[in-house]
Structures are given as structure tokens and as C-alpha cells.
Amino acid sequence: MLAEPDATVLHGSGNSMMSRNIYHNKNQDSSISISKMDVIIPFSPDVPCDNNGQRMWWAFLASSMVTFFGGLFIILLWRTLKYLWTVCCHCNTKKKEAQKVNNPANSQAADGTPKGPDEKDEVVPASEVGWMTSVKDWAGVMISAQTLTGRVLVVLVFALSIGALGIYFIDSSDPIESCQNFYKDFTLQIDMFFNVFFLLYFGLRFIAANDKLWFWLEVNSVVDFFTVPPVFVSVYLNRSWLGLRFLRALRLIQFSEILQFLNILKTSNSIKLVNLCSIFISTWLTAAGFIHLVENSGDPWENFQNSQSLSYWECVYLLMVTMSTVGYGDVYAKTTLGRLFMVFFILGGLAMFARYVPEIAALILNRKKYGGSYNSTRGRKHIVVCGHITLESVSNFLKDFLHKDRDDVNVEIVFLHNISPNLELEALFKRHFTQVEFYQGSVLNPHDLARVKIESADACLILANKYCPDPDAEDASNIMRVISIKNYSPKIRIITQMLQYHNKAHLLNIPSWNWKEGDDAICLAELKAGFIAQSCLAQGLSTMLANLFSMRSFIEIEEDTWQKYYLEGVANEMYTEYLSSAFVGLSFPAVCELCYVKLKLLLIAIENKSELGESSILINPGNHVKMQEGTLGFFIASDAKEVKRAFFYCKACHDDITDPKRIKKCGCKRPKMSVYKQMKLACCFDCGRSERDCSCMSGSVHSNMDTLQRAYPLSSVSVHDCATTLRAFEDEHPSTLSPKKKQRNGGMRNSPNNSPKMMRHDPLLIPGNEQMENMDMNVKQYDSTGMFHWCPSKEIEKVILTRSEASMTVLSGHVVVCIFGDVTSALVGLRNLVMPLRASNFHYHELKPIVFVGSLEYLRREWETLHNFPKVSILPGTPLSRADLRAVNINLCDMCVILSANQNNIDDASLQDKECILASLNIKSMQFDDSIGLLQANSQGFTPPGMDRSSPDSSPVHGLVRQASVTTGANIPIITELVNDSNVQFLDQDDDDDPDTELYLTQPFACGTAFAVSVLDSLMSATYFNDNILTLIRTLVTGGATPELEALLAEENALRGGYSTPQTLANRDRCRVAQLALYDGPFADLGDGGCYGDLFCKALKTYNMLCFGIYRLRDAHLATPSQCTKRYVITNPPYEFELVPTDLIFCLMQFDHNAGQSRASLSHSSHSSHSSSKKSSSVHSIPTTNRQNRSSKAREAGHKQNATRMNRMSQERKWFTDEPENAYPRNIQIKPMSTHMANQINQYKSTSSLIPPIREVEDEC
């Protein structure tokens, strides 16, 4: 029976080219009779094959099975023989080796004598390596990927395995078994080459394997067993069988290892993703290959008659719908082997699908959302913000950074954090998507730093968690971030927040940290304590300064309420701008007056660059400083555009303009002013005449300008008085000035306020101070920098007061610090609170005593940083005890500060400030006896030295005059520190603040009675836009802390005393903040309905005092008088702003060298009459008619002062034992007060004389 064509069983695709060739060449007339079931593979005369068409799959399979089991048998047989040989034949050898190891004298004979030269050691040295070991090590190196050759070999094997798998995909379209000629089939030749290489690699792996049995059972070895031998059988039989070649897909499991060898995969997420995908795909393809084999072959026991034609990719589809449990039913297994395999595969495949696919999807989606790299925009800078990234911190930062008042915000903000944002934070990023981008990563990872282009960023800002329960740990985290960023890019500018002041010292250990290049550390504890300390000197100043560096929009209120004036001041911010060349040669007061009156700008400071290139900020330096070309000014204004007026101002074009909005850039050329022009303009300003009418510059001087420039060179950064230089030159070159003019100029040359080099920076040359300063040079009164008052270290037991001792010690005009804390509390850094109160620009008698009320255990931990400050005492107790508060005379204090070190240890935000709020309400509800308060506050004989307010007529500054005592705690000046802004609603029970109101809009903050650390967040953006702002703020609030002082504290953690030198004493000459009283004194005429602008000009011209705000009673605008004593802050009022008598004016006043002399003369003549107190003069009231007599009298006064001090040093223990001039016995007996003294005490206004103005003194000279 001949086989019909349609009866021939074909496997694989019926459309294949080989099948068509077989059918076409089939001999229809063949007489060979075979059974239909026996005819499997048609043959062709062109290809030598079995002409019977019988399948020989068993030959291919047998080659693999024989190889596998044969090798396994040989390995097991070798191990068995080796074991038997070891057990039976080598027992004695092992015993001998054990004895030799245990015998340390193996080089000697049994009798102890050394071996002879003829004796040979039978033991092979252990250092020799056999050739088998060498070959094994070489093979191990070749396949371990530890060397370049090994890596190349491993990658090549993987690539060839994928190539062999590709050949399988191509051959899968052919029948399962077919006749092929090796010399004509190109794919078979390539596959043969690949498998020869695999065989060689298998040999290397076998040699390098330590355990041959486990190696034989590895997955990769099994793959080689079932893929390599069948290829050689194919060549021998001239036929191919797909068989188990699909097992090459298992090599995909090593794909992640290959990518790691090539350094492509670096992150854990990418490695995990590739691992999951490779395992899933390799299992999927391998299972599809098995289904393709059995379905196209059929069951052997059915004589392969139940097969079906399925392509490989249809099997792939079948496995996918099976794993996903969809099972459409369009393709299914018909063979028994296929169905049995599907039963077991669906159990593992379903588990793998349910586990791997969601995890792969999650990794892919997360990678796309916040992965990737930042692509910088050309012409646009970007900054990187990292650290504590939360909804609150980011919203506060963006609100200030992207404020509309900043007209130059062309910066993209890139946030980098290792935690993905929540929905609220993500929505915030989307609202600012044009300028904000978020990337998930860590700054500790260099790869993530490269993603955000940190090397090209304009700056990196690091935010701190202000509410962290462990501030030191938070600072350590930020320091590590700085180290990582600086290690990656040393030149990047970094601005970081720090919680604790002592942790700033660690930043100095970073080699690339350089504050001169813009690196800044904003210490929240330092600035918070500094703001509170300044409020002790001028209540409300903390609120004013906080509003100045925060960007606030102007809110217009029509009603005539206190909020209207407060919000007008809130709209002011601090800006910097270079001054126009029109100001060159003018003194600072003249420029300040011109800017305020004409430009509607408030100039408070300038930047001074020394000849060495170092810059410093001069705050209200006085009239000895002349403006130079390119001077940078610090302005208070409501908009950055307004400050441009100072840069565009031109005297020729804008001199007659009254509307400051019309001052814009003009077309005038601005040539650099010559030295002669600068000197003449300065001289004309001093003499008060115009440049045309002034005759100061004589012809001889003008003709000898070359000589003048050589003799007195003027640097472009010099701040010395040009007029002084001119007059010094005129002394050497007489001119044709009239005798009257010569006498006038001579008097001015020697006046106390004219020579900045001698008078303002060398207090030793002040007449009358010789003896006093000579003693100061032998006694350490200041620290080594001269910036702070200093005293020798004191034990804490010497400053502890009991309640009875504190009650007997009459405390008045002091500062009470109520501190909550215990042994486990984090340190708040009380040194930062005390340092501004001990600044050297205060004279010793002006220092306010400080009394700490709190836990002694906590204060012991802080005392190490406080033991070198004078006038500090401790009352162990609790701020919630009214007995302790009455013992320290809290009703007579100048300020009560309430702090807590336990605020961050509570999870509930509403309870974080419970201690401070309870203490504040406790003080406000206290009642006091007015008669006792007046007696203690004003009894001259019973006020401790250093705290009396002698000679109030010598200064117009509020605070030097004792006000009437308070009778209720509500009138005690208090400032409370808060952590949670919303808790401010609990401080004042009579206000109507909504809980959702922003902090700066609440009444306690506007009045200066509450301060929250959150207001310091604005300093991050303010420092980025202008690093001088932070320097100015720190100069104002810290009392003079400098980078040099920080380096000193980093070394010793304490202030070091130093002897007074002219250089250190010159550091005392800096301005300080004070408050002017308008109810009486030199400005009383302006207090009742006068204009603020007139007050500003008068204070500036007469006393060199720079006014910048008002502290006004809350109900001052009401027609009916009110009993409310609360005040609020008005920043930079306009010129026409109307004043009231109860106003207190914030001002920057100059340092007075002679105030210390006045105080000394008063101290040794105690209980002097009111008329004699008028003779204690300040620097402005020294007579100049007889300078020699004045000097001799001053020397006598100095000798008496020294004698008084030496006598007081011999007294018994005093309340203040740190300085002799403040010693006072504790055993005080209160005597009845006379009627005359009581009448004087009840007078609220001072009846003293006015201060002689500066220019009147100059005229007298």
C-alpha cells in the first residue's frame, strides 16, 4: 500500500518551505509499502536520510541521557573508590601526618639532636602547589568575572546562549524532526559552532568546580546536557530535532548578573526589576517550548497520532492566558503529556504571575514618576532643596521664595528626598510645576546628586526639622548631607539650617566649607535666642526684625485700627542695592537723610571693604564714614523696585523731583569722582556751605593735590574722614584762611566726634579716661575679641540664690528667664540668650542682671557655657511657683522670658507649648503691692550697684528712666517662646484672633509678646538671594558674634578673657538698639502731634541716632483714653506719620565712650543731689574751654574711682561677686523713705535738662 500524500503526517507548519519541497520531490510511483502509522518523515534524494521516514528522536534524547547519567555514574564511582581507598589504605598515613603536625620540633631527630645533613625530610613542603591545583585556579579565574578576560568570557557565553535561543526560534517554524544536510544548512553550522564553544566553557567550569557532583546537577549543566550532545547527533544522522533546545531560555536568569558586570545596573530597584523580569520571561519561554514539543510530536504511546500543529508563539500565547487564569479556550493542549504538564505548570505559573507582575508594575511606575534626571534650562539657574521635606516646610519655603515682591526669581527649585511625597505635597508641586520639580533620592548617594545636576546648581539648601525630639541627631544628619555634597562638588554653595549652636563648629571641619564663598549655616537656636534677647533691650524688636526679612504682601485696611498701621509696616522688607555716584563723598547721616526724605527709603547700614578685600557691615556708622564709589547699602522698603531709586538717583536730573516714583534711570554719564572732588565735597558738608561758596579748599591745596595724594593716599574702600585728611595737610601747608576760620577748623579738629581714628576707634585717647582705661588694661573685663563683657569662671554654687536670699536682695530692672527643663531635656543654648545682653557696646553699669528660674539639674548642664558672664544668678525652682516669681521681683523686671526645653518631646502639637502658656497666664494673673514696688524700685540706697538709673537726664533713651511699678501681672513685659504657631491664641484671652490666622497677624506677635521659631524659615530664601542679609541680622541680634569668635568657641567651647588693647577696645564702638521716649526730653515737642519725619531728621542730625520704627500703645488711636498697656510695632512709618506722646521710638544709637566715666564718677559719690547729677556729662557735654583742667580733674576722679573699687574688693561676699564695682552686701535693711523722695519717685516724667546737640558742641569748640 502506497502512502498517499494526504496521508503523510507532517509536524510543524504546513506552509513551511521544507514541507513543500518534500511534497514536490516525493516519488508518487514508489513501490515501497509502509504503514500509515509508520510513515513519519518524508525523505528526499538530495538529503541522505532514512528512506523509510522513521523518527529517531530517541537517538537525540539518548545522547543527552547517556551523557548526564554516565557522567553522574562516573562521579559517584570515583567518590566511592576514593572513600574506600582513604578508609582502607591510608589510615597510617593520616596518623603520621597528625603526629607531625602536633610535634613542634619537627626539624629535630627523635633523640632531640638536629638532623644530619644526609638525612632527608620525606614530607613535601606545604608551599608547593600541584599542577592540578594550578589548572583549577586558572579555570576559576577564567569563569569568575574577576578579571577582564573572565568578564569578557562570561558576557560572550551569555550572548552566544541568546544567539542559540534565537536559532531555536527560527527553527521552530520547521517540523520537529526533519532531514538536513550539515554542509548546506547555515543555521545548523552556526548552532554547531555555538555548542562547541559551550562544550569548552563546560570543561572550564568542570575543572574549576570544587564539588563535581553539585556542579553536575546545576541548572546550567543540565541545559548543556540536553542541548550540546543533540547537535553532534544531528551532524552524524543528517537530521535535526528541536527537542529540548528551548532550555537555552533559562540562561536569561543570569541577565541581571551580566548587566552588573558591565556596570549598567547600579541601584537596588533596577537590579530587582531585571531579576523579576528575567525569571518570569525565562520560565515563560521554557514552558512554551515544552508545550510546543509535545503538542507537535504527540504522545509516544499513541504512536504520535494525536499531535496538533501549533507554532511556538501560539504556545507562548497559551501559557500566558493560562498563567493569568483567563483561558479563552481558542488554543489548548490535546496531548496527554501537554495536559499533564499544564496541570503542574498552572500551580507554579499562577503563583509566579500573581507575585511577579504586580511587583514589576510597581517598580516600573515608581521609576517613571520620580526617577530620571533633571534637565537644566538654558539661561535659567536652579537650586537643590533637601533635608526635611514636608508639606509645612515646603509650603513655607515656596511662599517666601516665590513671593511677588521679588522681581528676579528666575530660578527653578529641585527638591530631592528619599521618600515619595504624599497627595497634599504632590498637589503643591503640581500648583508650582513651572518652577518646581521633585526627584526621589538621597544627597548621600552620589548617583542621585548627579541626577539633580548638583555640580551646576546655583546653591543647595538643606532644611532642618525644627520639631525633632533629638536636635543633635538632626544636626548630625544635616552635617552628613553637607559632607556628601561638598565631597561631590566642593565649590557648590550650601545654606543649611542648624538647630544647636554648638554643632556649627563641626561645619568648620569640612575642608571645602568656606563662609567667604557664600556657605552659610542658619542656627535657629542662636537666632531665636538673639531675637528674644534684643526684645529684652527693646521690647517688640523681635517682631520688627522677623517681619523685615520675611516677604509679606501689603494688606490694606480702611478702618482706623491698630492693625492698619501694623500691616503697613509689615509690608516692608530688607533689600540691598549699590548707591549712586551722586552720594560719593557724603557722610552716612547725610545719605541716610537724603534717602529717607527724597527717595522714601530707609538706609540702615552699608558694606565696608577693607584694603585687604575683607568686607564688613557698618550699621549706622556715624558721620565719620564717607560714601565711596560702589558702596552697597542696606535698605528697608516695601518693594525691590523702590530700592532701585538709590542706584538711579542723579543730582542733576532728580534734584527737583518731589515724587520718588519718577526717579528712574537717566542718560547722564557718571564719571568717577576725583580725589579732590571727594575731599572738597566732604569739607563743604562739614562746614555747612555749598560747594560754590565754600572756601575750605584753598588754591595752594588744589595746586598741591599730587603731593596730597602721595602723602595721604585715599583707598576706594577707605572710610576715614576726607576732611580730616585735608585739614592735616593744611597744617603742613598754610593757606589764606581767615583767623576765624582757622580757629573754627582747629576746634573741630580736636572735637570728640570728628576724628574717627582717634576718637571713635581709640577710646584710650578720650580725655579723662586715661586712669580708668589703664586699669582696664590690667584687668580682664572683656573676652579676647573685645565683643562681650567677661569675668573669671564662677562655680554654679556661688550664683545660686535661695528664695529668702532673692527676696532680701532688691532686684530691679533685671531680666527674669523662666526655663522649663530637666536632666533629659535637650539644651536650648542659653549662652546665645546671654551673649547679646553682655555685649561690650554696653557699659558695665548698663548691663541688666539676669536671673534664671528653673530646674537646677538642667541649669547645671547649661552652666558650662555661662560661667564667664557677669551679673548672672540662679534661683532653683519652677516658673509656675508664684513664690519663686515674687522672690525675684518679677513685677520690677525689665523683661520676663519664658522658654522650654521640653517642647519637642510631645507628639500632640497642641500640647507642645503647655508649660510656656501656663507660665505666661500664671504671671499675668498675679497682683502686686504698688507701695512696696515703688519703695524697692526707687530707693537709691537699697538698689544693688549696677542697677540704679542715675543721671536720667543725660540720655533721651527710654529704659534709663525707671517707670512706675506695675500692680498687675498683665503689665509685666513678657515674651513667650512657642513651637506651634496655632497656640498663640491661648496667650491673650482678650484678643479675637482666629485659630487659623497666620502668626504674624495675631495680636501677641504684633505686640512682641510671642515668638515662634517658624518665622526664621524665611531666612533660607533671604540668605540665598542676598547673603549679606544674614550677616546683618546676626550682627544686630547676636551682639557681635563673628566667624572668628565661632572658631574660638569651637576650640574651647567657652569665652576666653583677654586684656584690653586699643584693638579690642575699638570693637566696643558699634551701635546698639534702644528706644526713645517722647513723653519728655529732647523730642517732647514732637511727641504731641509732630511728624515722624521731623523726628527722624532731628535725631539723625543731632545725636546720630537712626530711627526705624515705633512701639505704640494699642489703643492710642482712640479718642478716649484706655487703660490697656499693650503696644504694637510699626515698621518704618512714612514721613508725615503723626506721633503721640506715649510712643516709643526704635533707634540705633551710637556708643558713648564717656558714659562709663560718668557712671564711675557717680558711683563713688552716691546719694548726690539732683543738681550734682546734671554735672555727670556724656561725650556731648564735656566743656572745651579749659581742656587741661578737665583732664587733671578727670585723672583725680579716676584715682578716686580706683580707690573706691579697691576698697569694695575687700568686702565680704556680695550678690554679684564677679566685678568689684558691683559688689554690694546682701544684708540689707529697708529704711523709711522720706516724703521728698517719694514725691520724686511718683513723678513719671523726668525734669532733667536736655542733651546739648552735637553741632552746638562743635560750635563751642
From TrEMBL:
Q: Does the keyword Ion transport apply?
A: yes
> Region annotation Disordered: residue ranges?
100-122, 732-760, 1159-1208
Chain intervals with Low complexity compositional bias: 1161-1181
User: So what does this thing catalyse?
Assistant: K(+)(in) = K(+)(out)
**Cellular localization per UniProt:** Cell membrane
- Keywords in alphabetical order: Calcium, Cell membrane, Ion channel, Ion transport, Magnesium, Membrane, Metal-binding, Potassium, Potassium channel, Potassium transport, Transmembrane, Transmembrane helix, Transport, Voltage-gated channel
Q: May I ask which residue range the UniProt record assigns to the signal sequence? A: none
What sequence ranges are listed for the domain RCK N-terminal? 380-522, 812-956
Q: How does it sit in the membrane?
A: Multi-pass membrane protein
Could you name the Gene Ontology cellular component terms for this entry?
Answer: monoatomic ion channel complex; postsynaptic membrane
According to the record, the segments passing through the membrane are 56-78, 152-170, 190-208, 273-294, 310-328, 340-358
Polar residues bias locations = 100-110, 1182-1191
Superkingdom of origin = Eukaryota
GO molecular function terms listed in the Swiss-Prot or TrEMBL record: large conductance calcium-activated potassium channel activity; metal ion binding
Q: Which family does it belong to?
A: Belongs to the potassium channel family. Calcium-activated (TC 1.A.1.3) subfamily. KCa1.1/KCNMA1 sub-subfamily.
Q: What is this protein called?
A: Calcium-activated potassium channel subunit alpha-1
Q: Which organism is it from?
A: Salmo trutta (Brown trout)
Q: Which gene encodes it?
A: KCNMA1
